[in-house]
Amino acid sequence: MRATGRPTLAGVAERAGVSLKTASRVLNGEPNVADGTREKVRLAAAALGFRRNAVAADLARGGASRLLGFISGDIANPFYSAVAGGIERVAREHGLHLITTSCEEDPARERLLTEELLERRVRGLVVTPTPAGHDHLAGELAAGTRLVFADRPAAGLAADSVVIDNPGGVRAAVRHLTAHGHRRIAFVGDNPEVWTFRERRAAFAGAMSDAGAPGAERWVRPGAHDAGTARALVTDLLTAPEPPTAILAENNRVTEGALRALRAVPGGDDVALVGFDDFPLADLLGVTVVAYDAAELGRRAADLVVTPGPAASSPRTETVPTRLIPRGTGERRPRA
Amino acid sequence: MRATGRPTLAGVAERAGVSLKTASRVLNGEPNVADGTREKVRLAAAALGFRRNAVAADLARGGASRLLGFISGDIANPFYSAVAGGIERVAREHGLHLITTSCEEDPARERLLTEELLERRVRGLVVTPTPAGHDHLAGELAAGTRLVFADRPAAGLAADSVVIDNPGGVRAAVRHLTAHGHRRIAFVGDNPEVWTFRERRAAFAGAMSDAGAPGAERWVRPGAHDAGTARALVTDLLTAPEPPTAILAENNRVTEGALRALRAVPGGDDVALVGFDDFPLADLLGVTVVAYDAAELGRRAADLVVTPGPAASSPRTETVPTRLIPRGTGERRPRA
Prior knowledge:
Oligomer: homodimer
Largest sheet of chain A: 6 strands, parallel
GO molecular function, one term (chains A, B): DNA binding
Low-confidence stretches of chain A: 1-5
Strand order of the largest sheet of chain A: 2-1-3-4-5-11
Region (Disordered) (chains A, B): 308-336
InterPro entries (chains A, B): HTH_LacI, LacI/GalR-like_sensor, Lambda_DNA-bd_dom_sf, Peripla_BP_I
Order of helices and strands of chain A: HHHHEHEHEHEEHEHEHEHEHEHEE
Distance between the termini of chain A: 69 Å
Domain HTH lacI-type (chains A, B): 7-61
CATH architecture of the largest domain in chain A: 3-Layer(aba) Sandwich
Shape of chain A: elongated
Keywords (chains A, B): DNA-binding, Transcription, Transcription regulation
CATH superfamily of the largest domain in chain A: Response regulator
Structural class of chain A: alpha/beta
Number of domains of chain A: 3
Mean pLDDT of chain A: 88
């Protein structure tokens, strides 16, 4: 879509009356060129609208650019915006620029974008991986490519990762609800193939069993990928013959859907709700959540990217802590 | 940070026992190579961990990549996430990948990022411009670079842009509040240098004058760049000797701060509030807003990027409509 006849380095050199090598030295800011020559080349470049090719310059310097890549799972989810904000802070401290892109949880797209960014010689890459296998990246890692997985580990690949303390967060939520008298607690979650879902679901079943309420698997409802589906699932639960007295929402979108269901279903205001993930204005809505610092998740992932570990054979895993914030919905007691 | 000794095309050619040109043809998927030769080159590339250089391949094809760039103003603001979602949808329809980056409202950073992406031969670029001048991009535009400005026009540059109907939205808000009996309406906004602020502020003054309440400039409070500052500004207004009976919040962050101030200040629940920008869960909080489709803003900007206009000399400007959504806070009447 560009005009044909884009000016070339050769054209600049010709116009300035210097060699190709001299023109290249000037435009890449290299020393040892006479001021008069430098000026001639710059004027020629400006007159022709010549633009230095940064990628070629990067490659000449050894292949690494000043770009740091982040492949998120969903461009419109504020969780990823917060993670990106954390990555960007570290990138900036190291003179790098963050570029982000999103695979929308599509494994084929994730693979394509990973290839695209690596082929553009990004300095490093933070990826929130889809459930697909990542063994195709083993060669990249072995070659020294800086690749870190955020929020979920890579499947079938020993690589650095930063995750949230999912078991700790879910256990705290279950303990909080059982301490308030609940036994019929439903766990409503996203795609059951996603690693975080499986971690949180396992922790839910274990914590319920520990609390003397085994068989909690029958209260698990997967498949709530957006707030609309979550609302429908929670409405179904609450209008069933034996409704739960409390909902544990697996992520911020599920919490939104559950909130809407609780507002709409008669008696919904008596149902307790704890959401995994804090979200903007949750405090004004009085929603009890399992919170953590999403920006810290991003910062730590970026730190791992810019700080190579001792050996590719011993990947590092870091965990971001969670904390339960009581705000109202999680402190409702079941009706006698 | 990559391991030294990255495999080269020459290394692949040597290992496969073919010429450099043949190796290049195979790895770029070009036709007219014997199957056996093709296989030898591929095996050699795999064994060495050789990665094709996509940028070099793009350049060989004429300079344009499959990447579409978006430079936003604030990576953590959900407004930009929604715009990016709209851009991505159009990008995908055209087989392009969106990469986004953020200048955090810093003109120097905006210029640097624009250069970085253009030098990497992105197919086109959507920019939410800072208030700085953009005349340095005139040469790019003239050379046919696809550059579109979103949410704000470029300063000092005739270029395609998509903006929100700021005057219409503000007029609707003022009419709504005056129809509910308000005359003392405060306008609380962000950075006064930003184009959207100036548009909205001018519309506010004009609409107040039209409503028979001139001199509204004394009710304008700029400088609320985040929710915390907005909360402090609104608290100051509400605790002054002659407080406003209604607040018009210039954007989503100001609305959040105003909501918190209204909750905390005695009598704050009686103060009307209309916010520019809809936001997640505003309906559950009962907040009246001036809404628009942020994803549509992104879609239209991307459409302009992929659809060249009739002439660079006659740039296109598109406007996304707004609509007022009454939900409670905007329908409060002043105390008698």
